[in-house]
Amino acid sequence: MAVRSLPKSRKEAKAVGAKKYFTGLPCKYGHVAPRNLHGACTECNLLRAKAHYNKVATDPDFKETRAKRRRDNVVRSRRHRQKRREEHAGRPKTSACEVCGSEGQTSYDHCHFSGRFRGWLCGGCNQALGAVNDDPAVLRALADYVEKHNGRLSQGDWIERERARKILGKARKYGSFVPPTN
């Protein structure tokens, strides 16, 4: 946009919805350039941005402190989110899964339709619920499937399976296990 077509004052710029205006007067640093609605000279803004970029590009301490500040912010936001979740749940986070009882890290589980808190689950149980889209019918069908096929091993098959499990366990333990390639 040509400088001559810009409004002459901030008030005129606001009235017509322009983002810049041009008074023709120099800023306090001597630039005769358009100004934004905040009154800042566009030349001064450009020089400030270049100076900041040069500082970032050449100063290793700046990069290091910025990275530390970002890490601190992530940790702070995680703590804040956990506190909000415990308040929303109405009870503190447990160390055991409410479904399978396994000890360790637990996750906040909630209904994706209503947003209501359901409980604290381990990662495996939480992922299993997510994999079936929280559908109880699919979970019941999976339970029926597992119960139907778990008892199908004959005594000989069971012995073979246990033997193979022991061999694979020792091979993994001593580093000699190589998975088969298809």
Overall form:
elongated
- Largest sheet report: 2 strands, antiparallel
- Mean pLDDT equals 81
Query: How many runs of DSSP E, i.e. beta strands?
Result: 4
List keywords for this structure.
182 residues, two-stranded antiparallel sheet
Tell me the layout of helices and strands.
Blueprint: H1 10-16, E1 20-21, E2 35-36, H2 42-58, H3 60-89, E3 107-110, E4 117-121, H4 123-131, H5 136-150, H6 155-173
Antiparallel strand pairs: 1-2, 3-4
Mind explaining what this structure looks like?
Helices cover 53% and strands 7% of the residues. The protein is mainly alpha-helical and 182 residues long. Among the domains are: 3-58, no CATH class; 60-92.
Short note summarizing the structure:
This protein is mainly alpha-helical and about 180 residues long. It is about 55% helix and about 5% strand.
